[in-house]
Amino acid sequence: LGLNATYSSDSDFTETLSGNRLAKGMDAYATCYGGHQFGHWAGQLGDGRAINLGEVINPQNERWAIQLKGAGPTPYSRQADGLAVLRSSVREFLCSEAMFHLGVPTTRALSLITTGEQVMRDMFYDGNAGYEAGAVVCRTAPSFTRFGHFQILAANHDLPLLKKLIDYTIRTDFPHLVDENTDIDHALMHTWFKEVCTLSAKMITHWMRVGFVHGVMNTDNMSILGLTIDYGPYGWLEDFDPDWTPNTTDKENRRYRFGNQPSVTHWNLSQLAQAIAQLTETTEPLQAALDHYADYYDALYQEMMLAKLGIVDADVSDTLLIETTLSILQNIETDMTIFFRQLSQINPDANLSDEALCQPLQVAYYSPEDANQNHIKLTASWLRELITRWQASSLSHEARIELMNKTNPKYVLRNYLAQMAIDKADQGDNSLIHELHAVLKAPYTEQDGKEMFAEKRPEWARHRAGCSMLSCSS
């Protein structure tokens, strides 16, 4: 934002970013939007606990919107208190910053401030409510505009305002598409929508690369800039299970499971297209943009998976190689992050015994005893296919390892790590929040003395609250 770092120790900073005062020039507001929640139109929603303080143009001429989450009620709080608790605030602060350093498009977290207030919450919606420490996160993004901002105007048939919003969004958030003399006509709207599809495909590809599961991909949680937004019941794939969802509300239907995220994004984009279609003379370009999303995502996914495997020269056989990789991952309970990180340690000498060849992957298995002879044989056969592809590649051994290690992170914010930090913070000890924050700033770098943050989920965390699935109150 162009602020001097010493300003964060100033009382004005604390008072402003905890929602107690406005700085000069701030004009706080909340926004109205609608959305499809779990596939059903929910009608009017809005910033129920998000308060926008304004926008800043920084010294690099970048626009940053500043938003408080949890500072109190807004006109869209629907009888709720608009507050946030420490646990959910810690999760958003750490995860949004972790995602940024992983290279995933995301909103950022500027600050996390405890309020000293006690907030009543029923974490599992089971009637066992209790008081928890309150907190406020200040998050920033070039824009917080969501698909739902356009949907609510279309649903209300307020076409003049819908047109104004689209005009503003294109000129402000997509300035490369226009100049001051450009008329925003139907053709430009179609071009803009195609770019939204492109940005969304890039975001989802990154989610799939690092094993992130958003958990609540409602249309009101989709950013027009393809940014990860609203860190609620998210999770990280530990044992590789494409059907896993971190959201307790989604446990039965699993709409937002890991493997369904690309198709849900396509569906969400189609809902945005329906809103835009109310202003355009033809829908064919919108459909073409949706088709572009599907083709572009498939291409990005293939390229991403090959990079995870250390391959840059695509081959017709690679689709089968990727499918085999995913099959091997699901054969026994295997940690996705550790498995791919360890792949760079595979000895490219295919003459090794099956056991010796597979040895670097043993650490990724949650129950190593499940790695029987059949699994080892299948894995070794797949590894030899992979080694053959390596040998046919234009990459040197060193360049391949570099590619794999900058694609496959060493450290991700596993839910149990976040919960450990929350548990300490609840006792007044913020040290683990700071330590995790520091480690997650370099997720692709081996860090001395930080191995504990790269280990498999411990058995005690498998079913513990906050360590696996989360509710929307988490």
* Separation of the first and last Cα atoms: 29 Å
Task: Point out poorly predicted stretches.
Answer: none
Beta content: 5-15%
Backbone CA Rg: 23 Å
Mean pLDDT: 95
Structural class: alpha+beta
Based on CA inertia axes, which overall geometry fits? globular
**Range of helix content:** 40-55%
Q: Count the beta strands.
A: 9
Number of helices: 14
Summarize the biggest pleated sheet.
Answer: 5 strands, antiparallel
Q: Could you state the order of secondary-structure elements as H and E?
A: HEEEEEHEEHHHEEHHHHHHHHH
Structure summary:
This protein is an alpha+beta fold and 474 residues long.
Give a structural overview.
The chain is α+β, with helices and mostly antiparallel strands and 474 residues long. Helix content is 41%, strand content 12%. It has helices at 11-17, 86-102, 147-155, 159-173, 186-210, 261-277, 284-308, 318-331, 336-343, 354-358, 373-392, 397-407, 415-426, 431-440; strands at residues 34-37, 40-44, 50-57, 63-69, 84-85, 108-121, 130-141, 212-213, 235-236. α2 packs across α13 and α6 (261-277) packs antiparallel against α7. The chain is globular and about 70 Å long. The model has no long low-confidence stretch (mean pLDDT 95).
